[in-house]
Amino acid sequence: MAPMRIFLAAAMGLIALTTTNARAATTRIRVAIPEFQLDGSPPPALGIQLQDGFVLGWVRAGAHVLDPADTAKKLEGHPEL
């Protein structure tokens, strides 16, 4: 009788582990970029391209990204954040 209990406990643990891993695989990383600054004095167009590339890198990595403009809108009126 004891081997059957061990088998059932192992099966239940495996099911729980598989379910947890499936949920973890669908969870996306969330990133908010409050400010993007470049040192020196690059042309404004280059700064925009670099910021877009930075955000695109996070998106391609699977993250949900709020760029500086979206982050500013979300934080507007919430100085404690």
Description:
The chain is mainly α and 81 residues long. The protein has one domain. The chain has three helices and two strands, in the order H-E-H-E-H. It has a two-stranded parallel sheet.
Structure, briefly:
It contains three helices and two strands; from the N terminus they run αβαβα.
Task: Give a short account of the largest sheet.
Answer: 2 strands, parallel
Mean pLDDT: 74
Structural class: mainly alpha
- The strand line-up of the biggest sheet is 1-2
Strand content: 5-15%
How many domain regions? 1
Q: Report the order of strands and helices.
A: HEHEH
Say how many strands there are.
2
SS element count, helices: 3
Helix-residue proportion? 55-70%
Enumerate the spans where pLDDT stays under 50 for 5 or more consecutive residues.
1-12
Q: What global shape is seen?
A: flat
Give the termini separation: 58 Å
- CA gyration radius, whole angstroms: 23 Å
List the helices and strands and how they pair.
Blueprint lengths: L1 H25 L3 E3 L11 H17 L3 E3 L1 H8 L6
Parallel strand pairs: 1-2
